[in-house]
Structure formats: C-alpha cells, structure tokens
Amino acid sequence: MSDEVILTVEGLNRIMEELDYLKGKKRREVAQRIKRALEFGDISENSEYIDAKNEQAFVEGRIALLEKLLRNASLIDDENIRTDVVSVGTTVKIKDLDFDEECKYTIVGSAEANPSANRISNESPVGKGLLGKSPGEVVEISVPAGVARYRIIEVSK
Known about the structure:
By secondary structure, the chain is an alpha/beta fold. It is built from three helices and seven strands.
C-alpha cells in the first residue's frame, strides 16, 4: 500500500499554514503554559501542568502527521485536470435520481476530505464510484444505506 497523499494546491497551502502555526505560535503558547504550571510547584498533582503536557503531545503529534503528509504529497496539477471525466481535483455536479436532488462535490484526496464542505475523498464509496465517469452517465454506487443512483450533469475545475 502506498503512502502517497493526493493534495490540491489549496490543500497543500492549508497544511503548510497549519504547520507554520503549530511550529511557531502554538509551540510558544504551550511552552509558556508549561512554564507557568511549573511555577505552581509539585508537578505530580498539578492539573495545569498535566493538561499543558497533554496539549504539547497533541501539538507535536499533529506536527509529525502534517510533516509526513507533506513528505508523501502528490500535487494535483490544475493545468492537467480534464473536465470530460470525473477525476481528483474536479468538481462534479450530480443529480440523485432517487431523491430528485442536485448537488456539487469536489473530489479530493483523503487528507483534504471534508463532507460538510462538499469535498469528498476519492477513496469514499461515492468518490470512487464517480471517478472516470463522464457527464450524462448514470452511476449506481453501493453506499451504507443501499445503492444510490446518480446522473452526472457537469464536470468542472
């Protein structure tokens, strides 16, 4: 299994901004919290110290994860995105044939997926089912609730 992480330019920028924040401002804030907590004395029962150390562990873990994502990143080149088929980096407008509703999704790598913002992973059942399909096609996709039927209306960048 590959560790490759597919990212759009927007996703790459978001990860880099978060990493800069965590390595700079957030690390300094946590270090200050630890320093203040140490001034209270005995650390064995110092909840402020324990909480600050837990936050430090979380921040360092998040930094390690983001750095790994960046090391394994495969950037989607906007110039090479085709709009005749659904692919990672495209926005697809579909019609749910069972509920007679239209919606738009942007297909992204799993690291950028955010269903509440209509950004679905290429590895999700719907994302995987839409990949490679063209406008006008009807696709049937197995989802946890059964089988969903969609007509692809439009593919765009």
